[in-house]
Amino acid sequence: MNKYTQRKEYIEKLMSYKDKDLIKVVNGLRRSGKSTLLELFREQLLMLGVGKRQIQFYNFELPENYLNKTWDNIYFEIKKKLQAEKSNYIFLDEVQNIPHFEKLVDGLFASENTDVYITGSNAFLLSSELATLLSGRYIEISILPFSFKEYLTSRNIDINNRYLNYEALFFDFTNETSLPKGVELREEGFDKIYEYLDAIYTTIIEKDITQRHQINDKRAFGNIVKFIASNIGNSLSPSNISTTLKQDKQNIHHSTVEKYLEYLVGSFIFYKVNRFDLKGRKQLATQEKYYLVDPGLLNILVGKERNTDRGHILENVVYLELLRRGNKIWTGTTRNTEVDFVCKSSTGDIEYYQVAWEIANESTIEREFGALEKIKDNYPKYLLTTDSFTQNRSGVKHLNVFNWLLETKKN
Question: Which pTM value belongs to this model?
Fold first, then answer.
């Protein structure tokens, strides 16, 4: 196993929940590294002296592991192999392929000396069925594709070298893919990466969305995906998407648009960010922003017309990094200004972030600093840009975004 797939932060998180009386649910986009994470964790357990027989690993993407079997067949098969008087670690990969999988998970969880780990590629499955049955008894760990730091490490690039051309590397990172397996395909050329991303996207759309939710109008669905992908970082609402598509002679009701958006977020292709009213200190219910799980997917979703400006792509990468660092994230808004991200850390601390590609002129300086300066509280405020020379101003810290992306995680 390649050393670069050692997803340190996620492994540490799993380790911190080891033997705790909770089901560990690892979710995220297909191919974002969930199975690899469980395999790495299994290796760690073996290194800690856990016996091979104490670990059971089932990959339910392989039909031979579930075809012609009911949840209770699998349950008794696992039960039979449990080691008495010892801790047993049960890994169930892509568990949503088992009908009534929640009963299987619940049964194992209730068994003596079992520590249960499951993965899934669909937020609905894991939130609805599991939440009902297991309320309060599971912890969710969401896995994302490689961060910029992991990406560079996976390419054997020394991130301590101060003279790296970060801009060129960032272009590769966002233009190719941040999915672990896709990065391995770099040697074989961009076409191979494109085919790989296309296959993943098709599987998600076919298996996880159109089949599961019985969407017949695939063209309308495809157009909505394309529209959101072309509007990364812009405020959107189902009704304005519906209106825009009407102008293009496509009649899709806004409630249908809303459902489609839910499915896309549920499959971890897009992440939705709600607006937060900075004056009234409350979450608003309209005009959300959407960010893409891997900017490389723009090649598939938008294709040749890929023209999302680099500022919005940078904003997308910063959003995913803030998520990785354990934040809850909103877009900040007042009557006449907008702040890209309002974050609440896992310890309840508030931080504000503004993102711009570069501070090119006076009006950019005024706009970017001004948005943060108008917030009259004492929480930390950051402006992230690609500029090599940074200038702090009235309490706003101006940081080079590449250095920020490569710094050690806070949580």
Answer: 0.92
